[in-house]
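ARCHIVE CARD
Drawer: 12
Card no.: 0347
Subject: one protein chain, sequence and derived structure
Cross-reference: see card 0346
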Amino acid sequence: MPTIVGYHDITKGQDHWLRSPKRQELFGPIGVTNIRTFVDPQNPKRVAVVMDVPDMNALNAVMQSPAAVEAMAHDGVAPAAAPALRRHAASVARPRSRRRWRYRPRPR
């Protein structure tokens, strides 16, 4: 399941954005789970959301819907600056090698 990071600027303040139920209302029906919110400590108008998305096509469809526009307006999200990043497959942890490396001091 892909993990998505969305980050954007907001206009209504961090408290309003953090307390909003719109994320769950919008993403819950398409199976998005583990929604986590973040705020930029140096820029109070910059926030991020991380979530696990089972179906990227469904997410893209929801993000193009009038419901998403309404939710973003309610939360004060600046839509022009709402990019999303997807976790790359290469970043997934791989099993460790069974070979053990040992420190061997150089001979003097």
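Annotation on reverse: Residues 13 and 96 are 44 Å apart (CA to CA). Residues 3-88 form a domain with the Alpha-Beta Plaits fold (CATH 3.30.70.100).
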